[in-house]
Write a structure and sequence with these properties.
This protein has about 375 residues and is of the alpha+beta class. It contains 7 helices and 19 strands. Among the domains are: about 100 residues, Immunoglobulin-like (Sandwich), CATH 2.60.40; about 100 residues, Sandwich (Immunoglobulin-like), CATH 2.60.40. It starts with a helix and ends with a helix. It binds 2-acetamido-2-deoxy-beta-D-glucopyranose (7 copies).
Length: about 375
């Protein structure tokens, strides 16, 4: 009995003393999970009791760094280095992974090269992609429903997308987000917000991943347009119609003048009664002008000045037979005249469309 008691006592003493002797050290504290942005650095600690012999760091099962008690760290890659911390009864090896890549994600293990003696954690490397809303401003009229698209490209993992209007979160039911797989293990997301604005508002699309200290944002200003402002837009479109009409009319004028020139040149070549042909040409051009703008008689004074030099020029050109290009360059003048004369036309029509303030509008054109 005494022997057995002594043996038990001895074994108790031995187990208590063994760690101190150095062949029964253990991992006191292993690494902890980490999430970092790609390209930044990741650090993991592994603390063992004194008397340790060897400590091996593994990344996804591959040894990346070994620390030997008698020699120190054995580094074989610039990306995997370590730092040591020693206290009275523990040793801590801090693994530093520089320039982390997406492929570094996974298991990080600290092994003491003893069976059943390893401790691990997970590294998550994430990618901060891009985020944008195509237009920075959008003008919306009353009762119009618009879809605003926010696009996130090249993220890992796919970001969480939320929307805000003027600093308050928008309900999830008002937007739809689709995620898709991009290239190189990256993810894209497309979020479509549907809204019917009743006021001007600043919309923000937020994309978040764990590694980002703050979500990335993209904004758009939705300018709400009242119906009164809408009328201004219809006036604008009316004036663009008049401009189109003016361009068409001026083109017709140019074609007519070319025809006249051709006739004049022909008659000049034939050298037959040039004078009578010229008078005919004048009649034709005069008739054209009357057809061209019947509404604009009052303003003809200025427009005729544009045409008359041409006719003089035509007669001056009769003795010399010239080619077409210089003529066509001259004929851009009537085009410009028609263009400017078309602007007053708009104002002439306006009073009938909007009888509220016809005099006001006239004043604007005079200025
Ligand atoms: C560490 O990450 C793994 C995998 O992501 C997870 O299963 C585990 O619960 C995490 N541990 C802690 C302590 O958060
Ligand atoms: C590792 O331990 C050292 C010393 O206690 C500490 O300064 C460092 O911040 C720790 N690193 C990590 C990643 O926990
Ligand atoms: C994430 O990317 C955006 C856009 O490229 C950039 O503005 C932002 O600073 C990045 N964030 C971090 C934490 O690197
Ligand atoms: C965004 O702007 C482009 C041109 O910059 C335009 O074609 C497009 O219609 C605009 N989208 C919206 C929704 O306004
Ligand atoms: C917008 O809708 C409201 C209610 O349906 C209606 O009273 C208003 O006239 C509409 N406005 C326009 C510009 O259509
Ligand atoms: C949102 O902000 C804009 C600009 O600051 C402001 O004009 C608008 O009234 C605000 N809308 C709401 C609903 O608060
Ligand atoms: C449109 O503007 C008028 C005044 O300019 C205002 O009285 C009216 O409430 C506005 N309508 C909306 C829907 O904001």
């Amino acid at each position: 009995m005494e022997r057995i008691q002594k043996l038990i006592l001895l074994s108790v003493i031995l187990t208590a003393l063994l760690p101190g002797f150095g062949f029964c050290y253990s991992v006191i504290k292993g690494p902890t999970n980490a999430t970092v942005l790609a390209g930044s650095e990741a650090r993991f600690n592994c603390t063992v009791s004194l008397g340790w012999v060897i400590l091996i760091w593994l990344s996804n099962g591959n040894p990346v760094l070994t620390v030997i008690n008698s020699q120190g760290a054995v580094e074989t890659s610039d990306r995997f280095t370590s730092q040591n911390y020693t206290s009275s009864d523990t040793f801590t090896s801090e693994l530093i992974i520089r320039n982390t890549q997406l492929s570094d994600s996974g298991k990080i293990e600290c092994s003491t090269q003893k069976p059943n003696e390893s401790s691990f954690a997970f590294l998550s490397v994430q990618v901060n992609g891009s985020l944008f809303i195509k237009n920075s401003t959008l003008t919306v009229t009353e009762n119009k429903t618009v879809e605003i698209v926010c696009e996130a490209l090249g993220w890992a993992p796919a970001p969480d997308i939320t929307w805000m209007t003027n600093d308050s979160f928008i309900d999830k039911s008002r937007y739809v987000t689709q995620q898709s797989q991009g290239s190189n293990g990256l993810h894209n997301a497309l979020s479509i917000l549907t809204l019917t604005p009743t006021d001007t508002e600043v919309l923000t699309c937020l994309a978040d991943i764990e590694a980002l200290p703050n979500p990335q944002i993209a904004t758009i200003t939705v300018i709400f347009c009242n119906s009164t402002i809408e009328n201004d837009y219809s006036e604008d479109s009316g004036s663009t119609w008049v401009i189109v009409l003016a361009v068409v009319l001026s083109l017709v004028g140019i074609i007519l003048l070319i025809v006249i020139i051709v006739v004049v040149v022909r008659c000049c070549c034939l050298k037959k009664k040039g004078g009578t042909y010229q008078t005919e040409v004048r009649k034709v051009s005069g008739a054209k002008k009357n057809d061209g703008d019947p509404e604009n008689r009052q303003r003809h004074g200025s427009e005729n000045q544009g045409y008359l030099p041409e006719e003089r020029w035509n007669t001056a050109q009769i003795p010399r037979v010239t080619s077409l290009p210089p003529m066509s360059s001259k004929f851009t003048v009537p085009a410009a005249d028609l263009h400017t004369s078309s602007a007053p036309k708009v104002q002439h029509q306006r009073p009938t469309d909007y009888p509220i303030s016809p005099k006001k509008i006239r004043n604007v054109t005079l200025v």
